[in-house]
Amino acid sequence: xxxxxxxxxxxxxxxxxxxxxxxxxxxxxxxxxxxxxxxxxxxxxxxxxxxxxxxxxxxxxxxxxxxxxxxxxxxxxxxxxxxxxxxxxxxxxxxxxxxxxxxxxxxxxxxxxxxxxxxxxxxxxxxxxxxxxxxxxxxxxxxxxxxxxxxxxxxxxxxxxxxxxxxxxxxxxxxxxxxxxxxxxxxxxxxxxxxxxxxxxxxxxxxxxxxxxxxxxxxxxxxxxxxxxxxxxxxxxxxxxxxxxxxxxxxxxxxxxxxxxxxxxxxxxxxxxxxxxxxxxxxxxxxxxxxxxxxxxxxxxxxxxxxxxxxxxxxxxxxxxxxxxxxxxxxxxxxxxxxxxxxxxxxxxxxxxxxxxxxxxxxxxxxxxxxxxxxxxxxxxxxxxxxxxxxxxxxxxxxxxxxxxxxxxxxxxxxxxxxxxxxxxxxxxxxxxxxxxxxxxxxxxxxxxxxxxxxxxxxxxxxxxxxxxxxxxxxxxxxxxxxxxxxxxxxxxxxxxxxxxxxxxxxxxxxxxxxxxxxxxxxxxxxxxxxxxxxxxxxxxxxxxxxxxxxxxxxxxxxxxxxxxxxxxxxxxxxxxxxxxxxxxxxxxxxxxxxxxxxxxxxxxxxxxxxxxxxxxxxxxxxxxxxxxxxxxxxxxxxxxxxxxxxxxxxxxxxxxxxxxxxxxxxxxxxxxxxxxxxxxxxxxxxxxxxxxxxxxxxxxxxxxxxxxxxxxxxxxxxxxxxxxxxxxxxxxxxxxxxxxxxxxxxxxxxxxxxxxxxxxxxxx
Length: 765
Hints:
Layout: E1 4-6, H1 11-14, E2 26-28, E3 52-53, E4 60-61, E5 72-73, E6 79-80, E7 87-88, E8 90-95, E9 105-113, E10 116-121, E11 126-132, E12 136-143, E13 149-162, E14 166-172, E15 182-189, E16 195-200, E17 203-205, E18 210-221, E19 228-236, H2 240-250, H3 256-271, E20 274-278, H4 281-293, E21 299-300, E22 306-309, E23 314-317, E24 324-325, H5 329-332, H6 336-343, H7 345-361, E25 371-372, E26 375-376, H8 385-394, H9 401-413, H10 427-435, H11 460-484, H12 488-504, E27 512-513, E28 518-519, H13 551-554, H14 562-568, H15 572-584, H16 591-597, E29 604-605, E30 608-609, H17 628-642, H18 660-668, E31 670-671, E32 679-682, E33 689-693, E34 699-703, E35 713-719, E36 722-723, E37 728-730, H19 731-735, E38 738-745
Parallel strand pairs: 1-2, 34-38
Antiparallel strand pairs: 1-20, 3-4, 5-9, 6-7, 8-13, 9-10, 10-11, 11-12, 12-19, 13-14, 13-18, 14-15, 15-19, 16-17, 16-18, 20-33, 21-24, 22-23, 25-26, 27-28, 29-30, 31-32, 32-37, 33-34, 35-36, 35-38
């Protein structure tokens, strides 16, 4: 079988790409490998959605249904305002005299690409095609019978207006955060409608051109026998007028094929920055589908140099720096932000600048944790925005370091550490500052801190470990400022702060149980909670002690100081034994009982959960204990077991690039175990050759010419032609461009990367 060459074939873009890997190879564009339906049936919780969108763009849609098994569409989507939410507005093509503001459509022959989709509706009576731009989109709807066709645009909790060939409107954006956020639409049709007006009691009221309410709609009715209707529209978070301007700027006619072709070119240009070759179509599909997912969020909110911010409910000038939001940082700091730092540094700088701006706009100067279109929903635990800032700063990105330090410090020390809360610090936080850990409630003890969410609980181990890491990240920012500040007095102050927060970064030690080598919840008196089961104790989602995952997963949640974790466990031999047992320990109960308690903890290999982000770094930890070959074996096992190019090919929730960026890195053979430390662990590359076209214009190449399903083990390595025996490389090694060459084999080379001095660096790096 010929090796397939993945390259962009648009003539306009060829000049910017490198020489093809094999000139006579069969060609296939990267976007043609993308399968948006991967994971659209979930194993337990929320599925992935087949998103149609240009990279990081405001205009996002997916079919209006629960998942791939849904029997009906609920209409045609206009815009998804927040990740995993339903569409705002609803486009309803209909025939006959009675018009509905909501409707279920049987559907068939659905085809979805990242930039377009088409579907047959109502058992063949209608066919819809759609393509997107950045802030606008276009539909073409074919009607198969000779009845009178109509189009209804419906809005929930909003308003609608209409004119001769246009409909505009607004809809409130709901969610956990109460804000004044609205989304606006301006839509127009190419065909002159025979009738236009507000829908009332199933009919068009042509004497009425506006309506507000819980469910309102306007409609066009076309002449009998009309077979095709073409619709274009723009969206905005600023105004209906801006929605119209966005449309006119991006889509100047009704040529759907041109919009789709442009979108395809944009995706190919974007995806081809990672240029890989392989004869394994399944691997290529999984790789490029995962890479496409990393552009789903955050989204750019800037519209003609302005943007709406839910963080102060105002429209702002962006000053030339695009504003981004919709990012669950608890998930994405681990691999999505580091991937973007490599592949699109400027976008990452703009995203981080947006987060600093949000902190100011909220009036607290607290870094956000879950910034969404309608504000910061403050979900999950810890303050991992500081990790993304620290990672960017230590890798040389242009970030306001002093603001980054101050807003991160305030978020950790002034806002409560109680999960899912955005209020000021309280009793739990005072206890943490004094004792270095979050106290757990004794069995039967009632909650006394009003900041604690009744369902999410204290999550004392998760919060203690997460905050220890955040404080270490804060020390990294301070250390960088101290090293670069020309004011000697300020530099000295920041050096002192770096030492302070580096010490606080060791707080995880307070909850380590040396008798069991687990992180074990303690009560306020300093006693370990007993009796205790690291698999099941903690109630629903183990939240009374951990968070979504059990003690076996959080056993490894010290990414900034793995060397110290090895020491705490008694040395490398015990550390590896404990790692091995994590992947071997049985569930202990039936699957029904296990998942009824831990529904996020799916994708199991033993007690390891491939389905949840706190596990992502764990298979790479063997590198720190002198056994990189076990990392190589484990990574291949996990990729082949849990990630597949089918509708159930995702082991758990994919929180908008949190997990798929792990897949991208791992397929390449690298992984950022510790954001905040400019280092990548080496795993087991899946491709014979991969080229990373970096933000600085240089190319970093990973060669593993004999890599295969069996040949997963590194026999030897060279970095830029020189022997390389470390299972890690630095960020600068990558950004300098060059070649990492790995000789692969079917049997482990247990001596490669095994020396103590070969281990990846830990806290004091």
